[in-house]
């Protein structure tokens, strides 16, 4: 461990409490969050240091050299500074397209015409971000994980992020369960840390303290295991089917 100097992480959101634990143990090590979809390769970075204390979301940072970005609303207009929107990225390492899938390539790109009537192509990441006061990009969640419930737009990934801050929670998966045509509910499936003991109602109270009322899960259930994809990620589709079969 004496030779360890730099830890880079990416691919998935790093739980804040685990990052803080590592930083407390490895005080002489630099930590960096790197971000980038496969279609553009790594394109942003954020270097943590000993001054880092706490934040509600870990920044993905600033874009690399020869990289540009925009944050767009649902109508492809740039949002105001600080507002959330979908990130589009242009890099020198960006893919030319999906092999044999011209229509998918067009749908996956944002095209911007310049004054010289030239066209710039950006990749639509599908990731919802905002730019904070320091000019760093902050990842909020996936565009396809944004839902509308009772007139409110809700980021399911944000609810998961809040649950992961609870000291007893190891993993959290938040989904929308539709038991009837007019009844949709926010459902949270939880894995606890080893030997941790906490009741579902306590986790709901924790959410009420850290989320607006409309985003608080209606039901929280603690599991001993969750369904997984072949890559080890939580399989939300299977989880949803299991939940509907269980409580439907």
Please specify the SSE layout and strand pairing.
Elements lengths: L5 E4 L6 H10 L4 E6 L8 E5 L10 E5 L3 E6 L12 E7 L10 H6 L1 E5 L5 E13 L5 E6 L3 E4 L2 E4 H9 L4 E12 L2 E10 L7 H11 L8 E5 L12 H12 L1
Parallel strand pairs: 1-2, 13-14
Antiparallel strand pairs: 2-3, 3-4, 4-9, 5-6, 6-8, 7-8, 8-9, 10-11, 12-13
Question: Which percent band covers the strand fraction?
Answer: 35-45%
Radius of gyration of CA atoms, rounded to a whole number: 20 Å
> Ranges with pLDDT <50 over ≥5 residues?
none
Nearest-integer average pLDDT? 87
Give a written overview of the molecule.
Strands 1, 2, 3, 4, 5, 6, 7, 8 and 9 form a nine-stranded mixed β-sheet that branches. A hairpin with a 5-residue loop joins strand 8 and strand 9. 23% of the residues are buried. The chain is an alpha+beta fold and 248 residues long. The protein is built from five helices and 14 strands. The protein starts with 5 loop residues before the first strand and ends with a helix.
What's this model, at a glance?
With 248 residues, the protein is an alpha+beta fold.
List keywords for this structure.
248 residues; alpha+beta; nine-stranded mixed sheet; three-stranded mixed sheet; 5 helices; 14 strands; globular
């Amino acid at each position: 461990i004496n030779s360890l100097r730099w830890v880079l992480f990416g691919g998935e959101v790093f739980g804040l409490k685990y990052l803080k634990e590592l930083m407390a143990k490895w005080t002489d090590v630099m930590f960096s969050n790197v971000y980038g979809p496969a279609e553009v390769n790594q394109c942003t970075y954020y270097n943590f240091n000993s001054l880092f204390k706490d934040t509600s979301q870990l920044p993905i940072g600033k874009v690399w050299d020869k990289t540009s970005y925009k944050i767009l609303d649902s109508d492809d207009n740039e949002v105001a500074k600080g507002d959330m929107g979908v990130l589009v990225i242009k890099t020198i390492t960006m893919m030319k397209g999906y092999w044999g899938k011209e229509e998918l390539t067009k749908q996956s790109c944002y095209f911007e015409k310049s004054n010289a009537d030239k066209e710039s192509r950006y990749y639509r990441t599908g990731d919802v971000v905002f730019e904070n006061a320091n000019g760093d990009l902050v990842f909020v969640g996936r565009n396809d994980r944004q839902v509308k419930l009772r007139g409110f737009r809700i980021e399911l990934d944000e609810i998961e992020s809040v649950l992961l801050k609870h000291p007893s929670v190891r993993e959290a998966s938040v989904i929308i369960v539709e038991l009837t045509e007019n009844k949709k509910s926010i459902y949270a499936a939880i894995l606890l840390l080893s030997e941790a003991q906490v009741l579902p109602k306590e986790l709901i109270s924790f959410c009420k303290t850290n989320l607006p009322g409309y985003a608080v899960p209606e039901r929280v259930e603690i599991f001993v295991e969750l369904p997984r994809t072949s890559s080890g990620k939580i399989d939300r589709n299977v989880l949803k089917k299991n939940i509907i079969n269980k409580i439907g």
